[in-house]
């Protein structure tokens, strides 16, 4: 995994969620064929090197990205002490829905199909949000996620869903297999050999980015062509 410097087109944005505001980084390459909204989990943020690396790989495929903190700074402080909000799937999903609606109104992303890239508990939140915004969300990818936390929303998801799990992440493999059985949409489970939960082993995050890039290009691009 090698991060390059920020792209010229990247901009800091503020996404209103009622009385509070979420901070995010929006990057829209020329002629973007879709936009991928990242759903972080377990204390992660828009500054996560892993998510930034995947975002850069998606930019290379002509996809826009929005990396947004689903918790406010005050909520992050509280969650660091009690670790309760990162498992509040309803709250995280509602924030994703608000961000999805914001993308539908923003000048440079209006009209683009939205994809979700969820990690850890963000994977469950992404699937709940996808079930609620079926007309707007065209694809979901979960990396080392907890799609099982989406519970009764799973059969209502219409967006094609790719679940990616590390081959060494045995408990999470089982959780993803259970969730896969509940999904009624186009779906696939990819297990990356030799990868742990965080995909820190050489080459494993590259494989995640490649799998996600192909999935999003296949399902978000206007012509459905893979680049």
Give the quaternary arrangement of the chains.
Answer: single chain
Q: Give the biggest beta sheet.
A: 8 strands, mixed
Strand order of the largest sheet: 1-2-4-3-5-6-7-8
Task: Provide the structure class.
Answer: alpha/beta
Q: Give, in order, the helices and strands.
A: EEEHEHHEHEEHEH
Number of strands: 8
Mean pLDDT, nearest integer?
88
The amount of beta strand, in percent, is 15-25%
CATH class: Alpha Beta
Question: Can you tell me the number of structural domains?
Answer: 1
Query: Which stretches are poorly predicted, pLDDT < 50 over at least 5 residues?
Result: 1-6, 223-227
**N-to-C span:** 21 Å
Q: Provide the gyration radius in Å.
A: 16 Å
**CATH fold call:** Rossmann fold
Q: Please give the count of helices.
A: 6
How does the SSE layout of this entry go?
Layout (H helix, E strand, L loop, with lengths): L9 E8 L2 E8 L7 E5 L9 H12 L3 E5 L4 H10 L6 H17 L8 E6 L1 H12 L4 E7 L17 E6 L3 H13 L4 E6 L11 H17 L7
Parallel strand pairs: 3-4, 3-5, 5-6, 6-7, 7-8
Antiparallel strand pairs: 1-2, 2-4
Helix pairs in contact: 1-6, 3-4
3D architecture notes:
- This protein is of the alpha/beta class and 227 residues long.
- The chain is built from six helices and eight strands.
- It has a single domain, classed as Rossmann fold (3-Layer(aba) Sandwich), CATH 3.40.50.1820.
- It has helices at residues 49-60, 73-82, 89-105, 121-132, 170-182, 204-220; strands at residues 10-17, 20-27, 35-39, 64-68, 114-119, 137-143, 161-166, 187-192.
- The chain has an eight-stranded mixed β-sheet, with helices on both faces.
- Helix 1 (49-60) crosses helix 6 (204-220) and helix 3 (89-105) packs across helix 4.
- The longest helix has 17 residues, at 89-105.
- Residues 1-6 and 223-227 have low confidence and may be disordered.
């Amino acid at each position: 995994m090698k991060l390059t410097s920020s792209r010229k087109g990247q901009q800091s944005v503020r996404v209103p969620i009622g009385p509070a505001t979420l901070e995010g980084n929006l990057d829209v390459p020329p002629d973007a064929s879709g936009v991928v909204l990242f759903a972080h989990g377990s204390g992660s943020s828009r500054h996560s090197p892993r998510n930034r690396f995947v975002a850069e790989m998606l930019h290379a495929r002509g996809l826009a990205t929005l990396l947004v903190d689903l918790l406010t700074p005050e909520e992050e402080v509280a969650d660091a002490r009690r670790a309760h909000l990162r498992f509040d799937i309803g709250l995280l999903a509602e924030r994703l829905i608000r961000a999805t609606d914001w993308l539908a109104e923003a000048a440079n992303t209006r009209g683009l199909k939205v994809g979700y890239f969820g990690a850890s508990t963000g994977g469950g939140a992404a699937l709940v949000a996808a079930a609620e915004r079926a007309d707007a969300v065209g694809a979901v990818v979960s990396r080392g996620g907890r799609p099982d936390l989406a519970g009764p929303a799973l059969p209502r998801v219409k967006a094609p869903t790719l679940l990616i799990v590390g081959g060494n992440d045995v408990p999470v493999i089982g959780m993803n297999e259970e969730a896969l059985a509940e999904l009624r949409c186009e779906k696939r489970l990819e297990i990356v050999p030799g990868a742990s939960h965080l995909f820190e082993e050489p080459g494993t995050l590259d494989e995640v980015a490649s799998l996600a890039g192909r999935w999003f290009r296949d399902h978000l691009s206007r012509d459905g062509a893979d680049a």
